[in-house]
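Below sits the subject:
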Amino acid sequence: MSKYKEWANLKEKVWQDLSNGARSPAPLLYLITIIIVAGGVGVWFPITQGSGDIKANLMTYVFALISAILADFLLEEKDKTQSYNMLVISIVVVIIALTVYTITASGTGNLNASISSYIPIGIATILLWTVWWILIPKTKFDLEQETIKSSTIGTPEPASNAKNRSLSALKSARKAEGSNNE
């Protein structure tokens, strides 16, 4: 079983990240109102007007959102494994490939284009929203309160005597406090 441990860890981490957003209504409301409605105004507004180059608008939306997601991912997440990072990169490559394919294979188009020509960009958009959901910055929606409270050092508030002490000294002091409280 140990040779599949990395697969199991990856599956567990992805599942944990998928369920993180469900801890609060804020991430779902943010996804719907900010990412889809406000961020997608360049896509849905021309549709309501019956004009515009819908595929080009979708491509612009996908690339704008994917760059923001990747920037947040690269700046925020430091504790991801190599497998997790490769999974994210692989999904991003698929999103980009589907987006480019939509434009190059069927050309740009308006609302009268075949619905099947929108399927690749639709899949890319759904994958994009899923990647955003998985990579929600935990600090943005206060999703890690339980982790912070149960960290190896203890509470989120620094100890009053923490100034100019090393991490190992603080850990030792916490252990000593813990054994004194038992």
